[in-house]
Specification:
The protein is an alpha+beta fold. The protein has helices at 11-24, 85-104, 111-115, 129-132, and strands spanning 29-37, 58-67, 70-71, 74-80, 137-140, 147-151, 168-176, 183-192, 197-199, 209-211.
Length: 219
């Protein structure tokens, strides 16, 4: 679902548009939609505001509807206009952390094996795992929004859970741009198969999508 990220629009109206679209497509409930733009993305903010989106802003959205009783949860990040080198770097690092975790997932490995693919908190600006909690993260998704297994460096090394075929869960990572101009947040949802895992979502996340200004990408 493409979000019309444009100049002179605040994240709040984007949340309203997303809620309307989700309900019109058949969602019986929208747990939450969040939209964060620009410098409010670093450190990670979980509440949208009336701040006007400006050219050069990174914008991430968290989409959490349910359909026929089943929940879903995913982040996508966009850039209003063209990104600078720090924004591209943040997105590519964040995408790699997500991909590295997904590459490990298969029946028989543990949540600790997955979390070892993620950096320690000092590598992305935090002092300890408590401060960095929820930034590199994973959680089961089903009849509830947050189910087991939980993937977090905060406690999975001491309390690992075996990953089994048929599990459905989300993997999400965050990385702030070094110039403080914004942050990337990417989340993929997957089902564990007998040989590995299969992504459920197909909206592109292989690069930072530019939108909102003439000449940008359109989906």
């Amino acid at each position: 679902m493409a979000m019309p990220v444009t100049r002179f629009v605040a994240p709040g109206p984007l949340v309203a548009i997303a809620n309307h679209r989700l309900y019109s497509m058949g969602s019986e409930r929208v747990e939450c939609v969040n939209s964060v733009s620009g410098a409010r993305g670093t450190p990670h903010c979980h509440t949208f505001s009336d701040r006007i989106i400006q050219p050069g802003d990174m914008v991430f959205l968290d989409i959490m509807p349910s359909f026929m009783g089943y929940h879903t949860c995913y982040y996508r990040t966009f850039i209003c206009g063209q990104p600078n080198k720090y924004q591209i770097e943040a997105y590519e690092i964040c995408s790699k952390w997500v991909s590295d975790a997904i590459d490990v997932i298969q029946p028989g490995v543990t949540t600790a094996d997955v979390c070892r693919e993620w950096p320690g908190p000092e590598e992305f600006g935090y002092r300890n795992e408590d401060e960095a909690y929820l930034l590199q993260y994973g959680h089961g998704v089903g009849l509830g929004l947050w189910e087991r297994p939980i993937l977090s460096r905060r406690f999975c090394f001491d309390h690992p859970t075996e990953i089994k075929e048929g599990m459905v869960f989300a993997v999400e990572c965050w990385k702030g741009a070094e110039d403080g101009s914004g942050a990337a947040r990417i989340e993929e949802e997957l089902v564990v198969t007998k040989d590995g895992c299969e992504l459920i979502f197909h909206y592109p996340s292989d690069h930072l999508i530019s939108c909102g200004l003439p000449g940008c990408e359109v989906y």
